[in-house]
Every structure is written in C-alpha cells, then in structure tokens.
C-alpha cells in the first residue's frame, strides 16, 4: 500500500503519539509506525511526574481531560538525608507544581484519542525502514498484517527511543554522542498499597538511594539504588521491603507494605546526540537524548521536544522553514540544562558505586551528605532545585 503524507513518524511512545496530535491540530497529515504491539507499549512502566509545562502542552491540544481528573497535583517533594526529612515547597519557592500521572496513562490517553480520530497509527509493524532522508524524497517502508507499506513523506521523524533505528541514519562523521554511564541502577517496584506519603520522597542513606513515588491513591511506586550488575532474582519481595524500610525510615513515620505487582532493574545513563536534525530527518525524545531518572525529566523532555518540533513542522508545511532550521539548536540548548540538573540530582542522591576507589568512598559519601544538608538548609538552593524540577519554559 502506498501513502503520501507530509510527515512519517517512527515510534509510538509518548513523543510520537503526541507529535501526531500536534500535527493533526495544525491540519498536517501523518503516518505513525510502531514495531511493538499496542499492548506491549502500554505495559511499559516508566515515568510518573509531569512538569507544569508538560501539562500545559497536553491541555493546549485537548489531551488532558483524564489527567485533570486522576492526576495528583504535588506542591513539592521531600528530600531526606540519613533519616532527616525536609519538605521542599515548590509552590512557596517558585509558585509552581508538578502532576503525578503515570506515563502509561499518558500513552493510553494519547492512543485512545488517535482511535477516536481514526489516525493512521500502525502498531506491531515489522521491517520498519526509513531511507532517503539526505535527499528530497524520504521514505518509510514497513510491513503490517502481511501487507507491505511505502510512505512517501516530506519529513521522517525519529521518536523511536534510545534503541531505535533513526539516529543511526545520521552518518558517523556528523553525529557525535556525548555519554556518561553511572555505577548505580534503579530497582523499581509497583505495589498494590496506598502511598505512605503525601508527596514523593527522595532519600540518601548509607546503604544507597531510596525513593517513594506513587501512581494513584491505591498504588505505590518505589525505587532502590542497586549495583548495575545486580540481578532482580537476588531481590525477594521481603528483601526489597526490608531495604526500603531501612533507607526511607524516619522517626514517627511508617512505610506500609503491600503486594508487589511488578519489579525490574534499570541501568542509568546520560546521552545526548550532537544534532537532532539531518537532511529531512528530525529526532525527538529518547531517540536524541536520555537522562538518569532522578530528576524526572525524560518524559518531560520528550514532550518539550515535540511541542517545539510539531510547531516547526506545521510552519514548514505552510512554507516557512525557519523554526525547523533552528529546532535542533533550540532543543539541544534546553536539553543540556536538563542534563546538568539530572546529573546533579543523581550524583547528590546516590552513594558512591563499585567503581569508586575504596579509600575515597567515605569522603565522597560525606560530601554528598554535606551537599544535601546545604540544599535542605538554604532557600536559595531550594529555589534552584524547585525551578528546575518543576520545569524550564518551552520556547
Ligand atoms: P519511548 O517511550 O522509548 O518510545 C519509543 C517508541 O519507539 C518504538 N520503536 C520503534 N518503532 C518502530 N520501528 C523501530 N525500529 C522502533 N524502535 C523503537 C518503541 O517500541 C517505543 O514504543 O521514547 P519517547 O517517546 O521519546 O519517550 C521517552 C520516555 O519514555 C522516557 O524519557 C521516560 O520514560 C524516562 N523516565 C522518566 N521521565 C520523566 O519525565 N519522569 C519520570 O519520572 C521518569 N521516570 C523514566 C522514569 C524512565 C524509566 N526507565 C524504565 C527507563 C523511570 C524509569 C524507571
Ligand atoms: C516515578 O514515579 O516513576 C518517578 C518519579 C520521580 C522520579 C523518577 C520516577 O524522579
């Protein structure tokens, strides 16, 4: 089957699905191709925190109805160091909030709206092959339900995540990827139990980082720092709860345990492509950059990218390509600020991992305790954290 549309999008994560809606709102036609099944995409448990600016983008395109009913508006976070917990009050510090609403729900809402609109979204496609992005006639070929499809488009958009195919279309002489790995990983669980906290708790403890987040008034999401080489098979439910009790514990507070419904270990990495544009190819979201989860920025950065890219593509479709020409520079400028913040939060809140020389471990740990004592004790430092955590403006 042949398709002729202005925009071909690869990858139906939050970035690709949202970009489709933004294009449609501007009257720009698209085809969106995802190689996983719809159920698989919906089963990935990931982010949980939406910045104010992300909620505004979803609102602008009429996509936030359920988010406003079910999302939990949080006016701050708790930072904890060795059992001492301090509330960082975003509303008081910078007059802004964040909304706790699972990425899965965002994706569900975006998919449901595409269904209602009858968008051309193909899930479970195979042999997804973009080509010709360095010329005037880019194509996207794929196979779906036994049928071969060819999409002829003006632009190909890679919203296919960190392991996608699009970034690889940029020649290695042009593309540099700046990366950092961490000697820590996150073990995350979902548990069928009411959260034991009103707002998220980020804790540094001599045993490692611990965190209490949530998905709803009846579902908790919790994380533990583990070694990147650790195996989830080493972590029984009892061991996980014991570690969470130890790391999150503070006088006069109880962490309520409940049945664990999901558990997995995710390594942490920072990575930024040197360009998000090559010929008629544009990258957005995790396809162009990833951050460690400590600053809760990955999903929000993906939303910011496609908010900028969608407007730029709409303008280009109308004959004005200035915004598209500056997209990569603008998105990367914003991205590097996010990279800095995510690294800062990650380094501050994790204990030195296995790669730290044994003799330096006490120094590095105590200096992080000192850093947290400074941040929790200084209104200036709290404002810096609050401004970045609640999100930079999308320009
Ligand atoms: P995604 O979600 O990876 O979607 C990419 C899509 O492309 C598809 N794909 C292909 N399709 C067709 N052909 C191919 N060849 C393809 N290759 C790949 C994939 O199947 C997939 O459907 O990227 P996107 O849309 O850019 O979204 C990015 C976010 O998913 C990610 O940044 C966040 O989840 C990161 N993240 C967090 N972000 C936040 O903003 N706040 C948080 O609180 C937060 N917590 C987290 C996180 C990520 C985590 N993990 C597991 C990495 C917590 C965790 C534990
Ligand atoms: C989550 O709820 O999954 C979550 C929240 C905040 C983070 C990372 C993950 O920084």
Automatic annotation (TrEMBL):
InterPro entries assigned: FAD-bd (IPR002938), FAD/NAD-bd_sf (IPR036188), RIFMO-like (IPR050641)
Annotated ranges, domain FAD-binding: 5-339
Signal peptide: none
Keyword Flavoprotein listed: yes
Highest taxon listed in the record's lineage: Bacteria
Key words of the record: FAD, Flavoprotein
Protein name: 4-hydroxybenzoate 3-monooxygenase
Organism: Naasia aerilata
Organism phylogeny: Bacteria, Bacillati, Actinomycetota, Actinomycetes, Micrococcales
């Amino acid at each position: 089957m042949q398709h002729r549309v202005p925009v071909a999008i690869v990858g139906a994560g939050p970035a690709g699905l949202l970009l489709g809606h933004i294009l449609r709102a501007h009257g720009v036609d698209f085809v969106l191709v995802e190689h996983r099944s719809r159920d698989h995409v919906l089963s990935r448990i990931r982010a949980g925190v939406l910045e104010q600016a992300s909620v505004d983008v979803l609102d602008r395109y009429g996509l936030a109805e359920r988010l406003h009913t079910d999302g939990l508006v949080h006016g701050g976070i708790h930072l904890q160091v060795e059992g001492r917990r301090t509330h960082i009050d975003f509303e008081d510090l910078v007059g802004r909030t964040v909304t706790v609403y699972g990425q899965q729900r965002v994706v569900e809402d975006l998919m449901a709206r595409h269904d209602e609109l009858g968008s051309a979204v193909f899930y479970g496609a195979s042999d997804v092959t973009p080509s010709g992005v360095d010329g005037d006639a880019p194509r996207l070929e794929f196979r779906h339900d036994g049928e071969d499809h060819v999409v002829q488009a003006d632009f190909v958009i890679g919203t296919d995540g960190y392991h996608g195919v699009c970034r690889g279309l940029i020649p290695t002489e042009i593309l540099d990827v700046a990366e950092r790995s961490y000697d820590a990983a996150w073990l995350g669980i979902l548990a069928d139990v009411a959260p034991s906290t009103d707002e998220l708790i980020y804790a540094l403890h001599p045993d490692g980082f611990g965190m209490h987040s949530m998905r709803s008034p009846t579902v908790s999401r919790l994380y533990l720092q583990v070694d990147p080489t650790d195996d989830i098979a080493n972590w029984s439910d009892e061991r996980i709860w014991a570690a969470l009790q130890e790391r999150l514990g503070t006088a006069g507070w109880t962490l309520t345990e409940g049945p664990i419904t999901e558990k997995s270990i995710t390594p942490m990495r920072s990575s930024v492509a040197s360009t998000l544009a090559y010929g008629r190819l544009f990258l957005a979201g995790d396809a162009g950059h990833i951050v460690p989860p400590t600053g809760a920025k990955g999903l929000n950065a993906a939303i910011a990218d496609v908010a900028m890219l969608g407007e730029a593509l709409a303008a280009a479709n109308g004959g004005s390509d200035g915004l598209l020409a500056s997209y990569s520079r603008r998105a990367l400028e914003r991205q590097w600020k996010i990279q800095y913040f995510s690294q800062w939060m990650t380094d501050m809140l994790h204990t030195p991992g296995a790669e730290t020389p044994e003799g330096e471990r006490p120094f590095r740990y105590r200096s992080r305790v000192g850093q947290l004592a400074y941040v929790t004790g200084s209104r200036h430092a709290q404002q810096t954290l609050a401004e970045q955590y609640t999100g930079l403006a999308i320009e």
